[in-house]
Design goal:
The complex is a heterodimer. By secondary structure, chain A is α+β, with helices and mostly antiparallel strands. In chain A, 21% of the residues lie in helices and 28% in strands. Chain A has a single domain, classed as Beta Barrel (Lipocalin), CATH 2.40.128. Chain B has 5 helices and 9 strands. Classes of the chains: A alpha+beta, B alpha+beta.
């Protein structure tokens, strides 16, 4: 019993010293975690005339989705198209040091954006990727996310707005309580890309709080696989057709 | 600051309660993990298929032999893994676990899959069969016990066929090893009375990899690159 009391006293003393030594940590001002459904009706449309550079305008005018839209082969949307689309939910997983955004479209991959919030800087030349390299920080109750390093063979929208590898995406995310709609997530998105745009493109997306929304399993690759491979495989096992004229 | 101090005190007092004989602390499963093929077990070589399953597999094999795995394996065709093989496939690819109060998330590098284990109330809404199924977790002492149902069945010719009745129990625990450091142990038990006469189990071991960040795994990248190379549409800034 003495040993038991001594152990408890030791633990209590340790606890008190830990409590006193508690130091400030990264602050997450607002809880963004949960599942959010994009509100397609409130998504801001692009201006009728986009401030594109001649190269970008030429690409967009000659745009052929079958050749240049990654999603036709179940490849990812990429960032920022995954945030501009209005069909699939956005799931946010938040810890004090990091935020993870998950979009699960009907494409091969879940699109996972990992956003450190611990103050580390963006690398000068991140390796090109579909989802980019992001950093986030809080300004009051707004989360600012900067993303660079996106592949230049991804596009911004289904009608062929292109971007170069110089693209820098700035997002400002905040939650408001709408008296009619409840909790709403607003994402103000700016696309900076001097090779593609004469001035930054700006738009806004609204998301409704949807705690019960669940992503569906993608079927895009299954369809491709069945179409391209199984059809051929099954053909081999189909009984031979009788020759023409044979009875 | 006061809130933080109160929180820290509460946390410590909780620890003290444990020392006095209450339930043990829940280990933190979060982090990046690599499968350890040497330490992990293997599925039984001869699976205890029911007579009906064994007969159906024999018939399927007879019809479709020879099987060309370079073409007839769905995973080589970019079809992602299904549980429990998300957990038991020994590859060089890591996965990451993120723990929140409501859920445990598992992000895999290979195929870029996401698994969600509910810790609170059971999943609401529809429960269509899926590759990750519907997972419910609960703590039993220092073990996270996860039950998974609603898994997409794998066809009779698959290396590991399954039925809609399949149920998987996993037991997650953290083991500190003097040589290997922090290890994640997961015992996987598959029960599927329409396919197996008795449950099938395997013990998996994963090494902690705190300095590793998961990369993008885009299975169809080569296909897309070939498609782009053969296209008349040119990326303007290349």
């Amino acid at each position: 019993m003495k040993a038991f009391t001594a152990t408890a006293a030791l633990l209590l003393a340790g606890c008190l010293s830990i409590t006193q030594a508690a130091t400030p940590r990264a602050v997450t001002s607002v809880d963004l975690s949960g599942t959010w459904l994009p509100d397609a009706r409130r998504a801001e449309a692009w201006p009728a005339t986009l401030p594109l550079t001649p190269q970008a305008r030429s690409f967009m005018e000659e745009f052929d989705a079958s050749a240049s839209d990654s999603t036709t082969l179940c490849m990812p949307f990429g960032t920022p198209r995954n945030m501009l689309q209005t069909e699939y939910p956005l799931e946010i997983v938040q810890t004090p040091q990091r935020l993870v955004m998950v979009i699960q479209p009907n494409l091969a991959n879940a699109e996972v954006r990992r956003i450190p919030l611990d103050g580390r800087e963006l690398p000068a030349s991140p390796e090109p990727s579909w989802f980019g390299t992001s950093r986030g920080h809080w300004e009051g109750s707004t989360l600012i996310v900067e993303t660079t390093g996106m592949r230049d063979d991804a596009i911004v929208s289904g009608n062929g707005i292109p971007h170069s590898s110089q693209l820098r995406v700035i997002e400002r995310l905040r939650v408001v309580n709408d008296p009619q709609r409840g909790k709403v997530l607003i994402d103000d998105i700016e696309l900076h890309d001097a090779q593609a745009y004469r001035e930054p493109l700006k738009t806004r997306r609204y998301y409704s709080w949807a705690p019960d929304a669940r992503p569906r399993d993608p079927t895009c690759v299954d369809a491709l696989w069945i179409d391209k491979l199984w059809r051929e495989r099954l053909q081999e096992h189909r009984p031979a057709q009788p020759a023409e004229g044979a009875k | 600051m006061i809130r933080r101090a109160v929180l820290a005190t509460a946390t410590c007092l909780a620890g003290l309660t444990l020392a006095l004989g209450a339930e043990p602390a829940k280990p933190d499963l979060s982090g990046v993990w690599f499968p350890d093929p040497k330490a992990s077990g293997r599925w039984p070589t001869d699976r205890p298929f029911t007579p009906a399953t064994a007969a159906a597999r024999d018939a399927w094999t007879k019809t479709y032999t020879p099987i060309d795995l370079t073409r007839d394996d769905e995973n080589t065709s970019c079809i992602p893994y299904t549980l429990p093989y998300v957990m038991t496939t020994i590859t060089q690819y890591p996965f990451e676990i993120v723990v929140t109060p409501q859920r445990v998330y598992q992000f895999t590098e290979v195929f870029g899959q996401v698994r969600r284990i509910e810790l609170g109330a059971p999943t609401r809404g529809d429960q269509l069969p899926s590759r990750m199924g519907s997972s419910q977790g609960r703590w039993e002492g220092a073990e996270l016990v996860v039950d998974t149902t609603h898994l997409l069945p794998l066809h009779i010719g698959h290396r590991f066929p399954s039925s809609p009745a399949q149920r998987i129990e996993e037991r997650f625990s953290i083991v500190s090893d003097a040589q290997s450091g922090r290890l994640l142990h997961v015992q996987v038990k598959v029960t599927d009375p329409l396919v197996y006469r008795e449950p099938v189990t395997v013990q998996m071991v994963y090494k902690s990899a705190p300095d590793v960040e998961l990369g993008e795994y885009i299975c169809g990248q080569d296909l897309w690159d070939q498609h782009q190379a053969g296209s008349t549409s040119r990326i303007p800034w290349r």
